[in-house]
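Deadline looming. Please check this record:
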Amino acid sequence: MAPGSGFVSDKRYRQWARRGLVAVTLIALVEWVLAGRAYRTLAGPSDWQAVATHLQANPGNGPLLLAEPWLGPRARMELALLRSYDVVAPPDLHGTPQYRVLSLVDNGPGSYVAQDSRDLPPAQVEAVHSLGAFTLTDYRNAQAGQRVGSPNLLAGAGLRVRDDRGRCRPSGSGYACRRGKVVQEVLEIDFRSRRCVSMRVQDHTTVRFELPEVELGDRLRGHLGFADFNARLRSDAAVTLDIAIDGQAHTSALFSDEQGWAAFELDTTPGVHALEVRVTTAIQGVWNDAGYQGRPSHVPCIELRALAGGDLF
């Protein structure tokens, strides 16, 4: 070994170590700056106040929706309109001819609004309001029609519910039946929150919703889906839906969890009619390592509205 070679080697090692430390420090600094930009507060108290003041002065023009759903928790704290029935877990935007969309940037209505506008022509922009960090856009869609009566006919007044063993009795926000329970609640269906009437009943049960007198428009529109992502992984059993008006069968359809939040629609004659909706379940339990578990975990949930005007999809 040449004289002094060990010293040179140690010196080079220390130089490279210093360079590596500087490089790591620079990378950490860049990441810190980028993280600060990504997680900075995009809207402050003055921005929320600007929106609240505008909404207070302009309370009409339909429900208030969010273009960025991740804003929901904070937005519901700040804006009372986001806690109304028509905004929390809506079925879709059919029957809602006017609505407003709040966005942090003017980037259109957002994916959730697009989902809920499915089967409708594009809505018209009526006005755009710049409110601090927010953009509030007013939309109108005449083809959406108008809702007639209850937001969900299967949870409204005058309803009678039966299962295979007789009439169910009112209990809380639903009905207690001999083969389970029927209740209006907000559930996760197809990765979205939806308000609907769930049927937590035993296998092979038919639930009957009877409305002896109900005001109908020119069509009925509803959705049927299955709650709980974990349960959907372990069961694909379908349910049958039958609808009769004035004792005459109008539709019969089969729904599985693969269809997600599945829409259905049928023509009706405007006026007062007798309506019966029957949902027949197959298997409500799930399969796992222990075999079949018969508890009602694979829960179907339904909503139904009477609409007038607009177009069928």
The first helix runs from residue 5 to 38.
